[in-house]
Amino acid sequence: MLNMAEGLARLGALAASPVTATLAEAFAAAGFELAIVGGPVRDALLGRRVSDLDYTTNARPDDILAIVKPLATATWDIGRAFGTIGAKIRVADSPADQVEITTYRADSYDGVTRKPTVAFGDTLEADLLRRDFTVNAMALRIPGPALVDPTGGVEDLVAGILRTPSDPDVSFGDDPLRMLRAARFTSQLGFTVAPDTEEAMARLRETLRIVSPERVQGELVKLLATDDPVRGLRVMVDTGLLQEFLPEVPALRLEVDEHHHHKDVYEHSLTVLRQAIALEHARHPDAAPDVTLRLAALLHDIGKPATRKLEPGGGVSFHHHDVKGARMARKRLQALRFDSDTIAAVAQLIEQHLRFFGYAEGAWTDSAVRRYVRDAGDQLERLHILTRADVTTRNKRKAAKLAGAYDDIERRIGELAEQEQLDAMRPALDGNRIQEVLGIRPGREVGEAYRFLMDIRLDEGAIDEAEAERRLREWWSART
């Protein structure tokens, strides 16, 4: 719960920081206003960690540059057209702080693209009115300091409400990406979207199509990197936003047939995502959020709607939904302009997420365990987490059995790794040595020989070079 006295004390500390105080004094001496604006003000009031500070002023870009140059070790004006000047400011012996200072804006939009016609404004209050949400439309005027809150942002912080400073239809019509930001902030801050704002998101969801895939992807990544992305995902599904760029997830809400019963795939997928995040934190508490793992958890069952088959007697099957889902995920993530490594990893995890469940029905041979590790490759740890998270049964006995089985496979992987350096699983001979032993040139036969030796490695464990050469010659002789 927001404690205003403590929040205001934190704002005072922001204003008193050496760099901020130095900038405030310099702008005031030049006859201009300066304020800390947006997220840093919100987070200071909430007691959240504040990182970079955003400043705004009535000074134009040339004036900003003239004021900060004497204080800066470096400046840049790549954002000059948008009123932004960047600088590195060093005060006394402290490390240089990187800052960005932007002229008040009074932009307008044409409704065709989300790129504004840039216009500079004259007042802080007008600048705040054009921002995305009231909780981000607060500023700390410096020196002073004085809190400026023309749209009731403090009241909305107390209530945990997200709403736009102006008519939501106008705000989202100006910039549809704000709708995705609303969903993200519900997860990031634990807030609820105001009813009229959420209704506008549903009405205007199709306007999201003017936003570039890269920007949509960026918001999705930020959402998934929060501690509770499920909250924001529900907002996007309920308003229809997710249908616009990731329709495979809303499609998981399969119609329930009165004669054929199966678990709710949509709710199951959200539970798997939550459980994957919990395991991620437990196993790697100091690591950054693993968005690749979280994408795989969210999308692991997207092949089910396309493979659902109603069986006689009331059963339902989803044969090969893992393979189908991997193909679907690859196509969708490509459309969202994810990088090739992320796409490959997510597709691989989805395709392999069912492999373990055969182990639960009966212990594998050492060869099968080696193949599991070989096929998972550098995604093995993510596959461990995803597979464990995929157990959502309420049957405690069944859940315990599956958890015990996965404990066992991880134990066996560890033992084999100690015995055989499983992480570097390669045949005893590489491609060059194969060519030397068989007296052949590079080509298809080298690959076939390598796979022959790899099968021995997987089935029997490590063998020495002499034995590998003997086996290779026998294989080659029998083959020719």
Automatic annotation (TrEMBL):
<keyword id="KW-0479">Metal-binding</keyword>
<keyword id="KW-0819">tRNA processing</keyword>
<keyword id="KW-0548">Nucleotidyltransferase</keyword>
<dbReference type="InterPro" id="IPR002646">
    <property type="entry name" value="PolA_pol_head_dom"/>
</dbReference>
<dbReference type="GO" id="GO:0003723">
    <property type="term" value="F:RNA binding"/>
</dbReference>
<protein>
    <submittedName>
        <fullName>Poly(A) polymerase</fullName>
    </submittedName>
</protein>
<dbReference type="GO" id="GO:0008033">
    <property type="term" value="P:tRNA processing"/>
</dbReference>
<dbReference type="InterPro" id="IPR006674">
    <property type="entry name" value="HD_domain"/>
</dbReference>
<dbReference type="GO" id="GO:0016779">
    <property type="term" value="F:nucleotidyltransferase activity"/>
</dbReference>
<keyword id="KW-0808">Transferase</keyword>
<keyword id="KW-0067">ATP-binding</keyword>
<keyword id="KW-0692">RNA repair</keyword>
<dbReference type="InterPro" id="IPR043519">
    <property type="entry name" value="NT_sf"/>
</dbReference>
<dbReference type="GO" id="GO:0046872">
    <property type="term" value="F:metal ion binding"/>
</dbReference>
<keyword id="KW-0694">RNA-binding</keyword>
<keyword id="KW-0547">Nucleotide-binding</keyword>
<dbReference type="Pfam" id="PF12627">
    <property type="entry name" value="PolyA_pol_RNAbd"/>
</dbReference>
<dbReference type="InterPro" id="IPR032828">
    <property type="entry name" value="PolyA_RNA-bd"/>
</dbReference>
<dbReference type="InterPro" id="IPR014065">
    <property type="entry name" value="tRNA_adenylyltransferase"/>
</dbReference>
<keyword id="KW-0460">Magnesium</keyword>
<dbReference type="InterPro" id="IPR006675">
    <property type="entry name" value="HDIG_dom"/>
</dbReference>
<dbReference type="Pfam" id="PF01743">
    <property type="entry name" value="PolyA_pol"/>
</dbReference>
<dbReference type="InterPro" id="IPR003607">
    <property type="entry name" value="HD/PDEase_dom"/>
</dbReference>
<dbReference type="Pfam" id="PF01966">
    <property type="entry name" value="HD"/>
</dbReference>
<dbReference type="InterPro" id="IPR050124">
    <property type="entry name" value="tRNA_CCA-adding_enzyme"/>
</dbReference>
<dbReference type="GO" id="GO:0042245">
    <property type="term" value="P:RNA repair"/>
</dbReference>
<feature type="domain" description="HD/PDEase">
    <location>
        <begin position="261"/>
        <end position="404"/>
    </location>
</feature>
<dbReference type="GO" id="GO:0005524">
    <property type="term" value="F:ATP binding"/>
</dbReference>
